[in-house]
Amino acid sequence: MAGPVQSIERAAAILRLLAGGPRRLGLGEVAASLGLAKGTAHGILRTLQHVDFVEQDTTTGKYQLGAALLHLGTSYLDVNELRSRSLNWADALAARSGEAVRLGTPLEGRVLVVHHVFRPDDSFQTLDVGTLLPLHASSLGKVLLAFGTATAEPDREPGLEAYTRHTLVDPERLARALAAVREAGWAAEIQEMSMGEAGIAAPIRGHGGLVVGAIGLSGPVERICDGQGRPRPALVSLLREAARAISRDLGAARW
């Protein structure tokens, strides 16, 4: 297996150095801090400057982080702000509902689970953080699709994957279901991704009311749904309260 690439390691060290200081640094300061020859440091800085990861002050000649790198970091910070603002509310929701809680954001045509609170009992459970869920077959994904936060991948053969006989794979049926999600303000999946499992989810909004993620409850059908196979109203209420609370923390107006 190939080892680490030294030039990339050195570039990363320079970026960390610039990120860790309160001021711009000159070529000599960068080279001395990292034990590099000035020529080596200058070559790496020029390359980082070329891709806008580093900027050079035209007056002093000193370097600082560039706009492109800061832009790349914004998406990471957005996800982590969403997660950090949700931690307490997610824990409280799991405790009050007795069910597992997951937080999701869109990633490359799927839902990335960025936080997962186990159901508060002694049952065996697997941590889902980092798991990618299908948009059309998960309650978290339906929320993101319904409110335009994520988009389904272009039509392709064989089309949307059917995980169970309940999965919505017909585009027209899925479109109607998403319209119902927008009207109700929450989504459900009932044995659509896994037989015997169900979930409900609600949108999390940020500044301006834009949906930036989704929070959901998941578990066995008999726990999430009533005897008629419909999500339990009490769980839906708890879920929506938590979603509104997180949204307020993120700067969304009350609704």
What this model shows, in words?
The protein is α+β, with helices and mostly antiparallel strands and about 260 residues long. It has helices at about 5-20, 25-35, 40-50, 65-95, 140-145, 170-185, 220-225, 235-250; strands at about 55, 65, 100-105, 110-115, 130-135, 185-190, 195-205, 210-220. It has a six-stranded antiparallel beta sheet with strand order 5-4-3-8-7-6, sandwiched between helices. Strands 1-2 form a two-stranded antiparallel sheet. Strand 3 and strand 4 form a beta hairpin. Helix 1 crosses helix 3 (about 40-50) and helix 4 (about 65-95) packs antiparallel against helix 8 (about 235-250). The longest helix is centred in the first third of the chain and has 31 residues, at about 65-95. The radius of gyration is 23 Å and the shape is elongated. Keywords: DNA-binding, Transcription, Transcription regulation. Pfam families: HTH_IclR, IclR_C. It comes from Streptomyces lavenduligriseus. This is IclR family transcriptional regulator. InterPro entries: GAF-like_dom_sf, HTH_MetabolicPath_Reg, Tscrpt_reg_IclR_C, Tscrpt_reg_IclR_N, WH-like_DNA-bd_sf, WH_DNA-bd_sf.
How would you describe this structure in keywords?
255 residues, elongated, two-stranded antiparallel ribbon, 8 helices, alpha+beta, 8 strands, 19% strand
Helices, by number, come to 8
Query: How do the strands line up in the largest sheet?
Result: 5-4-3-8-7-6
User: Structural class of the helices, strands and pairings?
Assistant: alpha+beta
Strand percentage lies at 15-25%
Low-confidence stretches: none
Distance between the termini: 54 Å
Radius of gyration equals 23 Å
Keywords: DNA-binding, Transcription, Transcription regulation
Protein name: IclR family transcriptional regulator
Domain HTH iclR-type: 5-67
Domain IclR-ED: 68-252
